[in-house]
Amino acid sequence: KCSEGGGGGPDWIMLDPPEPYEPVQHHWFYNQKSEGRDCWQPFSFEDSHRLEDSEGEVVVATEGRRYDVCVKERRRYAVYWDQTSSEVRRCSWFHKGSKEISYTPHTEDISSLLEDAYMIAVTLGEWKSNLELPTGETVILHNPKLMTQHPNYFKDFPPSPGERTQPRTLKRGIENIPVEIPEGEPDMVDHLVFMVHGIGPACDLRLRGIVQCVNEFRSASLALISSHFSPAEVHRSIGRVEFLPVNWHKVLHGESTGVDRDIERITLPSISRLRQFSNDTVLDLFFYNSPTYCQTIVDTVASEINRLHSLFLLRHPNFSGAVSVAGHSLGQYLLDYSSLIGTLNGPPCSSSDSLEEVLTSMGLEEHLRKLQKEQVDMEALMLCSEGDLKELGIPLGPRKKILHCVKKWKNSSKLQTIQETPPTTSAVDYQHFDVGIGQVSIDYPQLVFHPQAFFAFGSPIGMFLTVRGLKRIHPNYSFPTCRSFYNIFHPFDPVAYRIEPMILSPDMDVPPMLMPHHKGRKRMHLELKEGLTRVGSDLLGSLRTVWQSFSQLPVPALAEGGATAAAAHLNEDMETSVMENEDRKEVTVGKLNGGRRIDYVLQETPIESFNEYLFAIQSHLCYWESEDTALLVLKEIYGNGPSGTSAQQ
């Protein structure tokens, strides 16, 4: 470019050549509706690269193989649960209004037009050009860093000053917009956990469903695996833990049962929102104790877990890890008290087996003569009630084993039907056992695997057992096919109850184990509170011990070196106290968790400690977001074992 200089000759000014054009890098997004509005979320870099390289592939598995993307349709489908399919885009250009928080990707057609215009502007070095979009809006490419999108105004009717809006900002490529790309998940799955929800369709205060809450729990576990576990600690390479939601509420309140229609007909019109909330949540407790709907709930939980397990194995054919189950509130009760774990497997029992073979397999051959004397064969045994066996003089323990074997054979004959046929309501009766527990007598379906661990979050099982007459759980009792059981609760959870006091002798007062904070220490306000309590307790204990030492010694002893004797007595009492504290820390709590502690209590936050009543409801719904809970689950899975300290009561 030249200009006239002072001497009359042209002065040549050299401009920098235009930057070479480089094609934009595409990234794939999916549309996740939020409160009726579009909310575009990016795939991880790994998933986006898979989609970009798919070419001839019709379906691409994404997000830990929990979703399938049909590339040609540009749709994303959930694999394990019912969810409306969502739109998928191959994105490169984004726009945002002045009052909007996040950028929205343009459609692929518009992005292609913008990219062509950008390429021409860069190649020719010609900016401030206008491009009219098919929507009627106008795009102005001022320079590579400033590009705007203006709304469509009719030339004959220009907008008034109040109607004018700010132009939208345009950005090219994800590197130029503030977006958080999620971390990719390892392909290898080490462990599978099924999570069963409690009452109602909402699982937390944000009214999210079981799918969203389990997604958050899974994300927390992925972050904790990266920060707390390394291959050196577990002596092998680490993948991830897959958590899958189990939804039974939808079936219970679906069209197959018609229960919602029946309840709606008798519901009063006043305080409609409160009554609707009650119908969706509290009534689930009554449904479980109903002779009509209890079978539906239990069948749904078992069949859904078995369905998910089979589907997971199809998606992960090389999976060789173990499986665990977790239940929140009533969900834990469904897993535990419904005997879905307690009666998973037992001695083989079939109507084709001989009576002698069945009794021998259970170690009960000593009772063979009693049954043969009454001409009881296998067919007759299948018809015997507990009262019949009791009349024959068979003790309680062997009776229970025989009845369990008979029930297991009956359940196995119905398992195929349960898995293939949608659950329907059936009439069931109540049965009272010798221990005094009144529960609904139904056919309990079987799971197709043996769980490694069973995690209960905010569980009311202790209360249910107590009000039904069971005062104590025998220390030798354990789940036949599940070696570990953890009762995890928040200290302010109004629904949660303890289990250990039902196993330990009444004279033992053992507080629950305080779960460690995921950042490696006890919360400061708890340390301060515990320190003040310990100082006061130690001071009073020392004064009490000294007083007892002097008061118990005879007067001559005090006169003849009584101080020495008192000091010796004091040291003996202190040593005894220390030994008692050590014994309390190492207490063995039956066989339900292999002799290990069962009750684990979370640490409340500082704000929660100000008013425990205010945060009571929140504390019952906190487990899905609790990193401390996720860390305890991971420690059990990866073999480090849960740790903690005795909580102060």
TrEMBL record:
Gene3D superfamilies listed in its UniProt record: Transcription Factor, Ets-1
Residue ranges annotated for the DDHD domain, each copy included: 447-639
Pfam families on file: DDHD, SAM_1, WWE, WWE_3
Cellular component, GO, one term: COPII-coated ER to Golgi transport vesicle
GO molecular function, one term: phospholipase activity
InterPro entries for the chain: DDHD_dom, PA-PLA1, SAM, SAM/pointed_sf, WWE_dom, WWE_SEC23-DDH2
PANTHER family: PA-PL1 PHOSPHOLIPASE FAMILY (PTHR23509), PHOSPHOLIPASE DDHD2 (PTHR23509:SF7)
Family per similarity comment: Belongs to the PA-PLA1 family.
Name of the protein described by the UniProt record: DDHD domain containing 2
Source species: Astyanax mexicanus (Blind cave fish)
